């Protein structure tokens, strides 16, 4: 779990264009911290996105436990702008600050429920709430299992508000060779859900091989 694909092909924050796409990336304290780190790596490598990072205190601990002691430093180095989790006066706390959307990866049930019920006590939740009120895309990589009824109701509520709840489910049909490939696929899928038009980092798509296999074996 501590190893992601080689970082050599995924550099730090590139110099983005004069009119970059801005994306907020939030990391909360659920398991799956490597997904958020991979989202940052992929967006940085595109060279077309200005990333604004918010990391909760719990996420700092999870990054260290699941990815390694240097994981937080890696995340901060990848982001173009880092906002303190407690800074509710940051630029991304206002709807007047234009961004293309936000990904929370991973999104703990604590954070998801706070978004669902308007408990805006920190910048991560406030920024997510801003996406909803401004009718921008908010992708929540919700991490918990099993789910009780309160979790499900909160997930339904944020969906009604306009958020996209996307649990980190592997695309097994792509036959990922290792956990790094699974992390990459989930990260790419999350980015794809923002609809940014970044074809160079588009998620892998199903090409219908199964249909071909079924047609070849029909009648056997």
Automatic annotation (TrEMBL):
Dimethylallyl phosphate binds at residues 173, 189. Residues 22-185 form the Flavoprotein domain. The keyword Ubl conjugation does not apply. InterPro entries: Flavin_trans-like, Flavoprotein, UbiX-like. GO terms for molecular function: flavin prenyltransferase activity. It comes from the Bacteria. FMN binds at residues 29-31, 56, 108-111, 143. Its EC number is 2.5.1.129. It catalyses: dimethylallyl phosphate + FMNH2 = prenylated FMNH2 + phosphate. Keywords: Flavoprotein, FMN, Prenyltransferase, Transferase. The keyword Lipid biosynthesis does not apply. NCBIfam families: PRK06029.1, ubiX_pad. Belongs to the UbiX/PAD1 family. Flavin prenyltransferase that catalyzes the synthesis of the prenylated FMN cofactor (prenyl-FMN) for 4-hydroxy-3-polyprenylbenzoic acid decarboxylase UbiD. The prenyltransferase is metal-independent and links a dimethylallyl moiety from dimethylallyl monophosphate (DMAP) to the flavin N5 and C6 atoms of FMN. This is Flavin prenyltransferase UbiX.
